Structure formats: C-alpha cells, structure tokens
Amino acid sequence: MRKFILISVVLISSIIGAVIGSLITLRYAGETPTYNSVAERQLHFPVRWINDSSARVPAGLNFEAAARLVTPAVVHIRTTYGPGNFSLNPLELLANPHAQSSGSGVIISDDGYIVTNYHVIEDGNSIEVIMNNNQHFYAKVIGTDPTTDLALLKIKSNNLPFVRYGNSDEIVPGQWVLAIGNPFDLNSTVTAGIISAKARNIGILRDRNNLQIESFIQTDAAVNSGNSGGALVNLKGELIGVNSAIATATGGYAGYSFAIPESLVRKIMDDLLEFGQVQRGLLGVIITDVNASLAERQNLNVVQGVFVTRVNEGSAAEKSGLLVGDVITAIDGQIANSVSELQEQVARHRPGNSVKVKFLRQDIERQVTVVLKSYEGELKPSKKEISNEVEGALFESVSYQTLRKLNIDGGVTIQKLGEGKWKKAGVKLNFILMFIDKVPVEKTEDINRILANKSGGILVEGIYPNREKAVYAIEW
Questions:
Q1: CATH fold of 57-279, please?
Q2: Would residue 399 show up in a list of annotated catalytic residues for this protein?
Q3: Interval 258-280: pLDDT, tens
C-alpha cells in the first residue's frame, strides 16, 4: 500500500512540473531580449574559457614579438625595365609597355639603406620602394654584388624602422626562424620554420671569373615568389639572413628555401657603402670538396676538408707556401669541411687582410698566415672611380649656403657645360640637378650610380640660382 502511494506522489509531481514548465515557456517565447549586445551579455557570465594559445608557448618560442618588430622594416620593391620609366615618346610607351618585376627588401638603417637581392633589381631602369604603411619612395642603387646576389639601395627618409644584424655563425640546425617578406599585393607575409642546414651550395649563381659564393642557410620556412630579398630572422627579431632562393620544380614553395647568411650580408653592405663595390680578398687557389672517392684516389686519411687542386702563380696562397695536394681544414679557427664553408670564411675579408689557414700535408697538420690579394693581385681595397663629368657637363656639389638660400635638401650644380646630351636637351649652366627619374641626387657620386643602368629616356628635375624650377627630358 505504501509503495503504491509513493509511486502516485512521484507521478503527480512530474505532471505538475511539466504543466508549469509549459506555461513559463509559452509566456516568454515571444518576449524581446532586454539587452542589445551579445558581447556585453557574455561578460555577465564568467566562464573558465581555454586560455589563448600564446599563453602556452614556452619561453623563447614566441613568434609574435619578432614578427611585430621586423614586419614594418621589410619593404616591397618594384623594378621597372624598358626604355626609361619616364619615356620621351608616349606612343613608344603604348607600343612597348614597361616590364616589371618585384621582390622584397630589408631596411638596415634608420636613414634608408636597404638590402635586397641583386636579381630583384638587376638591369632595372627604375626602382620603387613601398613601405609596410604604403609610403612610396624611389630608390638609388648604391652598389651590387652578383657573386653573392646582394644589392644595397638607398631611399631618402629618416627615423625608419630597421632590422638589426644578428650572428649567423651562432645558428644551428633545428633552431626556429621566421621568414618575413613583402610580396606584391600581399603586404607582408610571415612564415616560420627551422634551420635545416648551413653552408649549402645549390649551383644557382654564375660569375665569369668563377668568384660566385654560395653558402646558403637552408630552412623549411615557406618562401614563395616575391619574397626574394626578405628577412630571415631569429626569434629576437635579428637579421640572420636574406632570403634568396627556393628549391622547386613547379615555381612554388616545395619545402626548401635558402638565405644568404648575415656574415656575408654585413660585409658586402659595408663594402658597397664605403667603396661602391665589393672588396674581395682571395687565396688564389682552385679547390674541391674532399669525399671518400677523392680520398681514395689521393691516398688521403681524411674524408672531409677542401682539397687544393691548383695554386695560382703570384697568388696569396703561393706566397704563403700552400701547395697542390694540401687539404685545408679551417680558416681563422672556423672549420672548413667544404668549399662553400671555406669561401664564406674567406669572403668576409678584404684585400690586405690576413687569415690563418690550417691544413694537412702528408697527414701532418700545419698552419700558415695568408695575406689576401684582390682579383687583380692588389694588397689593398680599391674605390670605384667616380667621374664628375658626364656627357659634356661638369658637376660639383652645392654649397650649404646655397641649399639654405633655395630651401632645398640637396643637389649638384653644372659648373661647365659643353656639347652633349645635357646641352642638347636645353639644360643651362648653373642648373642644380635635384632628381633623376624621381630619385634624389645629393652628391656627384649619385649621378654615376643612378645613370649606370639607364637607357632610353630620363626625366631630370632641378632649380636655377634665381629659384626658377625646371624639368628636362633627356635621351639617354
């Protein structure tokens, strides 16, 4: 009896609860919410949500800080080819539209010096730099080095974000890195990967004197077309390489990318800045990698190192006593197990610098000090010749007083004017040249640099001492 009563009570309670629930649902079903913001509503109900993934990143493995620091200093570079960016003949422009290519570059100083790949600006008639914030500048070429695929550009600006040099000697396979570029229409890309290998030679550079240097950093960070010349950085945001190539059968990223190490970038940029051309110190030897096959043929007891197959007459190596058959194992204490490693170490030095070469001769370890020479056999750096006379016009720097009087930032003035392209175009004596194809001219060296690769038509802008502004189109 009691069991029957208990079951009846539970059943009646269930029926009453269902009826009340239905009435409440019907009452509020059509009622309008009392709030206008879901986001604000959520704040009233604190829940233990899962933390952001960045909170779980181990110390030293945070990509965000490096990406945030470096991205503003990586620029897009647009290179124009053809008869001149500012053609004299509009019909010619229509018939022969300018070819363009693009890549990336890295600002390395606050006053506008930019490193990029040589192949990004090779034979370019006009080079435009687009910043991460969409500012546009025309750049002048300070110098190039095809043997390492590097070029130094300059834009006229100050207080720019820039990337500091790191130390590519300290990187090791397995270390995390970021590849940061600024390809066309994408306005900055950041990819992550690890160092896969160092001192890679992939046979993509060519030089008529066989002076090309390939000692690439290999990474698996995704790099595609348009990222050439971009930055390879460590997680502190320091530059450890300049992205230069990918290994691919399709033209797209396929798992391997290659960067020029910071050790070479730093030296080449300083050479171009100071001398206008690379100062290459050479041993003066023909060399090849030691491997098991070579070791067997030459009766060597080592299977790593650099085998000397020829010593050039009158070279630094000959003077120091190096001989054919020697196996070079280190340069200045740095192991040289391959040709690419040796070339990278030697390429850091200028003519006249001394390096310590450790080598094996008949299984006996020896060491000599070699004073490097230039390709021409010189023992000192040579500065690129700068001519103040160009096509009948003799240029000189403008005095500071004149710059202030005319309220201009820079320029060069024509002191003598003979027969030539300038006079033919109508340019007169005392003309102060300020721009060539929109690129600022600040000193006489700039004229040589800017005009070096020009062909077709150029546009020059400037001012006369009486403040009369003038623009001339010159056939070049």
A1: Thrombin, subunit H (2.40.10)
A2: no
A3: 999 999 999 999 999 999 899 99
